[in-house]
Amino acid sequence: MTSLTQQLTAIAAEAFQAQGLDPAFGQVIISGRPDLAQFQCNGALAAAKAAKQNPRAIAEKVAEALRGNPVFRDISLAGPGFINLSVTDAFLAGAMNRIAGDPRLGQPVKAKPEMVVLDYGGPNIAKPMHVGHLRAAIIGDALRRIFKFVGDETVGDVHMGDWGLQMGMLISELEIRRPDLPYFDAGFAGPYPAESPVTLAELEEMYPKASGDCKADPARLERARLATAELQEGRPGYRAVWQHFFDISVEAMKRDYGNLGVHFDLWKGEACVNDLIPPMVEDMKKRGIAIEDKGALIIPVKEESDKMDIPPLILIKSDGAAMYGTTDLATIVDRVNCQNPDRSIYVVDHRQGLHFVQVFRAAIKAGINGKGTLFHLGYGTMNGTDGKPFKTRAGGVMRLDDLIQMISGEALKKLTEHGLGGDYSEAERADIARKVGVAALKFADLSNNPIANYVFDLDRFSRFEGKTGPYLLYAAVRVKSLLRKAAAQGDKPGSILAPEEGERDLMLMLGQMPNAINDAYGELAPNRIADFAFNLAQVFSTYYNAFHILSEKDAAIRASRLALAELVLKELELCLDLLGIATPERM
RNA sequence: GACCCCGUAGCUCAGCUGGAUAGAGCAAUUGCCUUCUAAGCAAUAGGUCGCAGGUUCGAAUCCUGCCGGGGUCGCCA
């Protein structure tokens, strides 16, 4: 099972091959001139160039070969060699019934699944999650869902910042505040308390304080360094404190990601790979991959063909500490050990592009990456309406939970304004508001190209008209309501009949979904699916206005329209699910 | 300074492995709720695709140069 254009491409490819031409020229696409035809094939033009022949003549020969195929209602030539194609209504109806009967809605399962590790987290212990984590989460989780649906094995790793100097700062901060705690008593033998000595709020307050003090006071910084070193060497009391910090932070992260509907398979962090670093570094040193330079241990990654000077990756600083590039390399080792991925995709802010060039080159140079490829999907900055990186009105960084609360609150306001759900329970209204809010947020992000910067405009996102997540939810929910009403009057979706005048556009759209999914998959561009979903919702809204379903007198036609509506719903929900957007039952 | 990304309608953005007349949404104007949720639908208007060259039968798309905006460039992450 494939999309309509893929099916027609297979037919056209054969026709090209029969003329002794490369079947790759048989690419069939949706027509750019729907007034002339449903589909088109431009392959004759490219084939003519390659074979140095007249394009019109090639097009004529291919068209002649295609005329033998009964799926076509009309085949004509236009311009320098466009082949315009339209299919029969019977073919369209047959295709619709097949898709409707396919649990995957026409999307084939990938023949050779790959193991794909996606890295789209990066939250830090003790620091509240903020809008900076938003894009990675939204884009990465969507990609994970898309890859999984297409047929790959996927592992999403949150890859927390839970190690290093920041942890030493926090531990020493606690020790300064409460030196009497058993964690800091070197002679303490008994089991440490199960309860955390600090709350999340306290932890979040401690970090900026400690960080500021360390910046201002070298002695304070030295104390943090020492704590870091002792932590890494395994001092039991410090490890126990670290575990508390980790646990309460992870709990908060899981809540935030959960509210966003973002899933991770692995909750690993930098600490997990700490023990892999010394042997890795030792090995790289021994093999001459890493060399000493200015007191540091570096891996040169410069290449002849570089247009600019690529600085080396610094493995060990001159003070003996590891860097985040070191941790990233150790993480690659860990992933090869655990998942042995065919692909690793890092969904990280594009400003870290150079860092990943260094890490990837170092990994390849050291031969630690196993069989896989490494790819950095750098997404653009989320800016405010002033074009500068998004900030709160006070100029600070906005917390993720504040943001979600804000947009859910806005959604609730809109629901009330439109008099929707007045008779629903408080809990259901809150659930709907959260879904609508998250849909607004995610869809706005995912309908942009990941690479480009984008403007986060709460006012614009909160207006739920137009090309927005809420519009899509609205479209889906309307169909759900329709199906419920149909069931109540005893109607069931049936066999899809040959299209009436005005029904073809909807069918053509329904037959296109695999193209959108394949494009999104191939280009790592969820916006392909977002675009498709919006187009489908629009075409259906038009249809919904023009064709009344429940009041149709002919039972067979009623059942056919109902089946189309149900198929629209299935495709919409699938697309939304691939974008990580949940659809409420009603709104 | 070098390198990377971006520049498309008043605004926010799709489209970029070359194809016919460059698409959406918002904002503007005009219609449509005694039939399935009007967060909707129909219609009108809005463009030197940053500029200048080049390649091609054909360029928003590929190449070169320039202009404007953003980013990155050895011991932070």
Automatic annotation (TrEMBL):
Arginyl tRNA synthetase N-terminal domain: residues covered: 2-87
Domain DALR anticodon binding: 472-587
GO molecular function terms attached to this record: arginine-tRNA ligase activity; ATP binding
Domain of life according to the entry: Bacteria
PROSITE patterns documented for this protein: AA_TRNA_LIGASE_I (PS00178)
Organismal lineage: Bacteria, Pseudomonadati, Pseudomonadota, Alphaproteobacteria, Rhodospirillales
Location relative to the cell: Cytoplasm
Xref: SUPFAM superfamilies: Anticodon-binding domain of a subclass of class I aminoacyl-tRNA synthetases, Arginyl-tRNA synthetase (ArgRS), N-terminal 'additional' domain, Nucleotidylyl transferase
The name this protein goes by in its record: Arginine--tRNA ligase
InterPro entries the record matches: aa-tRNA-synth_I_CS, Arg-tRNA-ligase, Arg-tRNA-synth_N, Arg-tRNA-synth_N_sf, ArgRS_core, DALR_anticod-bd, Rossmann-like_a/b/a_fold, tRNAsynth_Ia_anticodon-bd
UniProt keyword Lipid metabolism, yes or no: no
Pfam families in the cross-refs: Arg_tRNA_synt_N, DALR_1, tRNA-synt_1d
Family per record: Belongs to the class-I aminoacyl-tRNA synthetase family.
PANTHER family named among the record's database cross-references: ARGININE--TRNA LIGASE, CYTOPLASMIC, ARGINYL-TRNA SYNTHETASE
EC class: ligase
Cellular compartments per GO CC: cytoplasm
Alphabetical keyword list: Aminoacyl-tRNA synthetase, ATP-binding, Cytoplasm, Ligase, Nucleotide-binding, Protein biosynthesis
One GO term of the biological process aspect: arginyl-tRNA aminoacylation
Span of the annotated motif 'HIGH' region: 123-133
Complex and partners: Monomer.
EC number annotated for this UniProt entry: 6.1.1.19
Catalyzed reactions: tRNA(Arg) + L-arginine + ATP = L-arginyl-tRNA(Arg) + AMP + diphosphate
Source organism (scientific name): Dongia mobilis
